[in-house]
Amino acid sequence: MTQDPSAQADPSAKSSVRRDLVQPAFPARLLAGYEAFKEGRLPQERARFEEMAENGQRPEIMIIACCDSRVSPEVIFDARPGELFVVRNVANLVPPYSPDGELHGTSAALEFAVQALKVKHIVVMGHGRCGGVHAFVRRSRNPDDDALSPGDFIGKWMTMISPAAEALPTQEGESDHDYAERLAITSIGNSIQNLLTFPCVNILHGRGQLQLHGAMFDVTKGILRTL
Prior knowledge:
single chain; alpha/beta; Beta-carbonic Anhydrase, Chain A; about 40% helix
């Protein structure tokens, strides 16, 4: 069980966190939310938390979702603690298998879910009005567009959607918005194909022991469509 952040810290305890890097006030909204959780849901789920603390997590489903704050898988699927193993990144992308010795957060989470947790399902869940996808479309049609904010990571990350874009021709009279919405769906299929480049996924999927799924969530209407 994690420590209650509202409790007084032991003044004799040594912290490994540099105090000059910590803001003086923890966000009040988070503390209020924790208090609501502690008084409401925690008593209802206490036995479950204690059982998982003792025996570990055993989720059967991994969800790869966008880090957009509007599309929390735990909320959308009304999940209990321990039911879903979730990894979130910009535009819910899955990189192809590339054991190059570099740092790969999504790939590491995927490997852990499949080989250690032995999940039975992997769901790639996209969503409408995805900022990453729309920014990619604007930048691809206007290289001077600064939709993908300048930086060291986001532009390179979003190039993973290029194969999906190359496979999706534009329709006559189609707006950038409508094309981006279609591209978000096509990108899910591309991510599923990339999942199969991982040997552990490919082998278990071929044996019927691991199922791959796509889903699209409409943030305006709150409707989930399985693909």
